[in-house]
Amino acid sequence: MKRNEPDPLPGRDKGVVQSGASGGWPNGRVSDESLVRALYAEHAAPLLRYAMRLTDGDRQRAEDIVQETLFRAWLHPEAIADRPARPWLFAVARNLAVDAHRARKARPQEVGEGALQLVPVPDEAERVLESWAVADALSALRPEHRRVLLETYYLGRSVAEAAAVLGIPAGTVKSRTFYALRALKLALEERGLAP
Amino acid sequence: MSTTAGCREIRHSLGVYVLGAIDPADRALVEEHLASCPECREELAGLAGLPALLAVGRVPPGRTC
């Protein structure tokens, strides 16, 4: 069992932001763009301060943690739909920091930042655009498709684990994942990204 | 073995197969089927590039501000 995130709401598979919920999300189902903006406005600064402590002041790593945490919140709106968002966000950030720390210890020494600055990165802008196109394509999927991809891919759960978390049969996890990927492929093609 | 019924079930498994979420027993079944079924191999080829793109979406690069 992966431990990147606290279990959101076991057994629930609503996958939609509840309209009028009294939790972390403003105005129920708002557009993804304003959702992202609201998340950043409300939580990015305190999360960054927290992540800086988790990384012993390494700003780049702290920013990566903030990005990943907010990205997961955006992918997973129901996790914070009916309750205050911050405890969940901080728990995700903390787990990401712990996992990253373990991964670094298991790797040989990293190349220093000085050396990295000598490496040209002409495709940085392209990578940014690509990542947003992927995020945009994900946001165009039906909520249950996005949710099953979150479980099976982003959280690395097995079919059996995803079935337990979502409260659906294993066979449904399989077929839903298959149709989610087909839908994603179409959505990516519409955005000029042919897999 | 009925090929069409087999294909249908196998295709539903291809999603979790490319994402690496498939159970080991299912993986063996899928791979055995793929070895003898060009249509399912083609379906797989259509999905095979998706994990790499999902990985791009995982950590939006760049800075927070």
Helix content of chain B: over 70%
Give average pLDDT of chain B, whole number. 81
- How would you spell out the order of helices and strands of chain A? HHHHHHHH
Beta strand % of chain B: under 5%
Structure in words:
The complex is a heterodimer of chains A (195) and B (65). By secondary structure, chain A is mostly helical. Chain A is built from eight helices and no strands. The longest helix of chain A has 23 residues, at 32-54. Chain A starts with 31 loop residues before the first helix and ends in a 5-residue tail after the last helix. Residues 1-30 and 115-122 of chain A have low confidence and may be disordered. Chain B has 65 residues and is mostly helical. Chain B is 75% helix and 0% strand. Chain B has four helices and no strands. Chain B has helices at 3-19, 24-36, 38-47, 50-58. In chain B, helix 1 packs across helix 2 (24-36) and helix 1 (3-19) runs parallel beside helix 3. The termini of chain B are far apart. The chains are: A mainly alpha (195), B mainly alpha (65). The A-B interface holds A 40, 44, 48, 63-64, 66-68, 71, 124, 127-128, 130-132, 134-135, 137-138, 149, 152-154, 156-160, 162, 171, 173-175, 177-182, 184-185, 188, 193-195 and B 11-16, 18-23, 26, 46-54, 56-64.
Short description:
By secondary structure, chain A is mainly alpha-helical. In chain A, 64% of the residues lie in helices and 0% in strands. In chain A, helix 1 (32-54) runs antiparallel to helix 2 and helix 6 crosses helix 8.
SSE layout:
The complex is a heterodimer of chains A (195) and B (65).
Chain A: H1 32-54, H2 59-75, H3 86-106, H4 113-118, H5 124-139, H6 143-154, H7 159-166, H8 170-190
Helix pairs in contact in A: 1-2, 1-3, 2-3, 6-8, 7-8
Chain B: H1 3-19, H2 24-36, H3 38-47, H4 50-58
Helix pairs in contact in B: 1-2, 1-3
Question: Main traits of this protein?
Answer:
heterodimer; A: 195 residues; mainly alpha; 0% strand; globular; B: 65 residues; disordered C terminus
